[in-house]
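Quick one:
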Amino acid sequence: MMMNAFLCYLHDLSPHLIRINESIALHWYGLAYVLGFYLTYRVMIFLARRGLSEIKEAQVADFITLVALFGVVLGGRVGYMLLYDWDQFVQTPWMIFMIHQGGMASHGGIAGVALFCLWYARRHKISWTGIGDTLVCGAPLGVFCGRIANFINGELFGRVTHVPWAMKFPTELLHEDFVKQGGTAVSLPLNIQHSPEIIEWFERNGGGRAELETILHPRHPSQLYEALGEGLFLSAILLTVRILCPRLPHGVLTGLFFLLYAFARISLESLRQPDSGAEAILGMTRGQFFSVFMVLIGLAFIIHGWLKARRA
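Output:
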């Protein structure tokens, strides 16, 4: 790690926890998924032992395994291809199975989890919204882990800023908008994709870190903002409400998750650099635009839950 003259951290983290060769490596991103599923599992066990879960303690392990595979991974991948990479999907639809190449959408993962829970609820004859009220207490911890992995990878960085905690991401050189924002075009080899590789290339081909830092922009570490807002804080709020208000009608807590996640995503997305080549939709980024629908879904869950409880 290194600070330049403007006390701006130069991102130099490797995406690999362990790397044996070019083909075999353990990535932080993969570890983040595993840790996220485990933390969600622990939260659901905690709630099940206190009688605050529709899913019994003995069922939690199997449920988490299935929801991870068919909800988060499959839903996240399908969502990314449909929402963010439609042209690639149409041209090469088999890319949907190339998960190792990256490309997951949180909105797709949430939709995938919701659909899986609906199937699971019907199969086991339990409340769909009741399952959701338990799951949403721990699921944001998975978002937290994923955003931390985004930061380690140097991806999804923020917009240009001059706040005291601004950081410089070498991966900015790979972004289509780098030159549009006044940056100097740099011809990097195609196999270079991560911060340590870019830093090493500059050290071998010129002025090293000093030259690199002069051409990079200071940016918001938006991955860390989203890790806290969409992940850690959201999970803490929902878990607290679940414990303090155990008799909430089924669906209210699920609706609260949709509302709070959408508000966090819409507000924090304004500090995040839009994806390469992504066009705004009604003046909003794609993440913000899709989050608007989550507000409507959240309100629908809350209203349905209260009306159903009132009728009962």
